[in-house]
Amino acid sequence: MAPEKTDPVAILGAGAWGLSTALHLLNSGHTNITVFDQASQIPSPYSGAYDLNKIVRAEYEDEFYTELALKAINTWKTPLWGGNFHQVGYVVATTGAAPEKAVKHLQKALGSVKNHPVFSGGITPLSKSRDFKDIYWQFTGPLNGFRGYHNRLAGYAHSSNAMVDIYQHLAGRGVKFVLGPLEGKAVKLLYSRDHNTPRSCTGFQAASGENHNASLTIVCLGAWAAKLLPDIGSYVKAKCWSVAHIQLTERECDYLRGIPVLNVRDLGFFFEPDPATRLFKLCPLGAGYINTNKSTGISLPPGESLPAPRDYIPAIDEKKLRTLLRETLPWLADRPFVDNKMCWFADTDDSEYTVDFVPSTDNSLIVLSGDSGHGFKMMPIVGEWVVQLLKDGKQNLSRWQFRQNLGKDGRDWGDQVSWRIGTTGEIDELIAEKDRVVKARL
Ligand SMILES: Cc1cc2nc3c(=O)[nH]c(=O)nc-3n(C[C@H](O)[C@H](O)[C@H](O)COP(=O)(O)OP(=O)(O)OC[C@H]3O[C@@H](n4cnc5c(N)ncnc54)[C@H](O)[C@@H]3O)c2cc1C
């Protein structure tokens, strides 16, 4: 049974999906919403979206997500969201040295927009380096063997600013926020003591020891979901990719203003520089790193005992990014990278999300997870899925149902994901690599 609109609702996690959930529940009439986050501020530095920008595009191998992304893009163009959306265009390419997997993925992604009634008019094929230079006059690199296309109706959103704006909007409309590593951090879900099946989730316990009662608890912990719901860890794996930046001068920033997002499937992607910080963000593409607990098979972001490597990206990722720059903007190719980080998301083998009631919990507990590294663009509409779930009383989309009885296998399948090139590594190997690099420099 759906909760009454005045019943207490606890949303755990104030990242992209938790904030969107709060917004849509508020808009649907809920008046007693509290959002909790382990971070002391919004945007949370733990969020996968704690970043300058994220790609907003509708290219997918599966038209279900193309249609969702189109809906999200249309919502990005409304007053609440539009200040953070930049429809600068999106160029997808492969280099002359790209593996077949990257070329195939590009063709499939193009297929989803090339004949689409909304996008087809905005697609331009790019078959030689001159075609790229016509769109990016700033490109002075050789663009060896570059092939791809330009999609005019895509771009990026400023992800940290979008989270701040929605947070302020919610706080101003009566949604309560409890933040911080003690009061805001959820450590345990609480269940009724009557041993009924299905059991009832009655709220959660915070790291401070305080119990918070709620008629409906919604877990939006991104890569951390399995911390509270270990069963989801059988198919949702915390995974990280690296992010690097180059500090530009004001003039350099002006020079690159207006460039489309460039996504080179076998190397990485970059964005128009951020005018406020003058940072130019780059991400290498690859299969990422996981942190598998050998006894449970569950991957969670590292905690205090195994700190994530800071101010560091793997050598293989740096090589990809420097190649990307040499091919496109060679004057930046040897600049130092700053604000390097590893950024965590919740991955699934088929890149499907989970938006469902937790099995055997009488619809008092919902989990949203498995963003698979493509969930930020959906921020404007994610909460609608929760409102629909509450209305329907069950998840009618089998692809988004909580997967049960998978057991633990500890095996990673990241390498098989069609849109990832490379091999998934374990984070402890990365930390060992980092230590070797630091020692070699001493
Ligand atoms: C490098 C990188 C690049 C990406 N690029 C794109 C892109 O271009 N386009 C795109 O659409 N998506 C992209 N994504 C994915 C996007 O960031 C995620 O899909 C999105 O952030 C998922 O939102 P979420 O709310 O599920 O998780 P998050 O945004 O990670 O939020 C989880 C929240 O839970 C909080 N939390 C964790 N544990 C606790 C606890 N115990 N108690 C309380 N709070 C807790 C955290 O502090 C955090 O605020 C990218 C991700 C990465 C890592």
From TrEMBL:
Belongs to the MSOX/MTOX family. Keywords: FAD, Flavoprotein, Oxidoreductase. InterPro entries: FAD-dep_OxRdtase (IPR006076), FAD/NAD-bd_sf (IPR036188), MTOX (IPR045170). GO terms for molecular function: flavin adenine dinucleotide binding; saccharopine oxidase activity; sarcosine oxidase activity. This is FAD dependent oxidoreductase domain-containing protein. Gene3D superfamilies: D-Amino Acid Oxidase, subunit A, domain 2, FAD/NAD(P)-binding domain. Residues 9-389 form the FAD dependent oxidoreductase domain.
